[in-house]
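Hi there,

I know you've been waiting on this one. I reran it after we fixed the sequence typo, so this is the corrected version. Both the input and the resulting structure follow.
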Amino acid sequence: MKKNCFALAAFTLVFWGVQMLPAAAEQAQVRKLNVSAAGTVTAEPDIAVVSLGVLSEAKTARAALNANTKAMGSLIDELVNQAIAKKDLQTSNFSVQPRYVYPKRSNNGPQRPPRIVGYTVSNQLTAIVRDLDKLGDVLDKAVSTGSNQIHSLRFSIDKPAPLRDEARKRAVKRAIAKAQLLAEAAGVKLGPILTMSETGGSRPPQPVARGRAFAAEAASAPVPVARGEQEIRAQVNITWSLQ
C-alpha cells in the first residue's frame, strides 16, 4: 500500500512538472523593452515667499522684547497694508538669547567666567506675496518699517498640479517615441505595455535661468526684482513586451 502511495505521489509531481515546464519556458522567452523618459514644463512663478526678521538688543530681556514686539507689530501692519492677507503671514522663529562677554585670560590668573552684558530678541516672519509686481515695494517698506533682517526670498508656483500633470504627459509621450525608435532600429515591434510607473517622486518647482525672463520687470520698484522661470519635471518608466 505504501509503495502504491509513493508511486502515485511521484507520478503527480512528474505530471505537474511536465505541465509547468512549457509555461515557465514561455515566460522566460518573453522579450521586454524598458524605457525611461522625463518631461518638463516651464512657467513664470506667481508667488514669492519671503522670510523677514526683526533683531533687537537691550541690556535686559524685557527691554529687548518690548522693542522687538513694537517693531514686529509695525512690520505686520505694514505688510497687511500692502495687501498681504493675514493667512499668508506666519511666525517662523522666535528666540531670546543672552549676550556674553568673555574676559581675556591673564598670564598667571585663572580663566574668569563669561558675564551677561545684554539680551537679543529675534523674531522671524514668513510672508507670501501673491502680487509680484508689488514685491519690490513690499521689501522696501518692510525694511523702512523695522525689519533689519531678510533671511531668504524664493519664487514658486501657487498651484503646480496642472503643470505637473502636463509634465507627466510629456514624459509618457517621450517614452513612447523613444520606445518606437528603439524597436524600429532593432527590427522588432512593440507589444502591450507591461508596467508603467512614475519614478523619482515629484519635485517642487525649480528655478531656471532664462535670459529674457530675467529682464527685471520691476525695474521701477524701489527694490529691483527678477522673477525668472520655474521648471516642473516628471519622469516615467515604462516596460513593453516585444513581438
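Quick highlight: The beta strands are 32-43, 47-58, 89-101, 115-129, 149-156, 190-199, 206-208, 229-242.

Best,
R. S.
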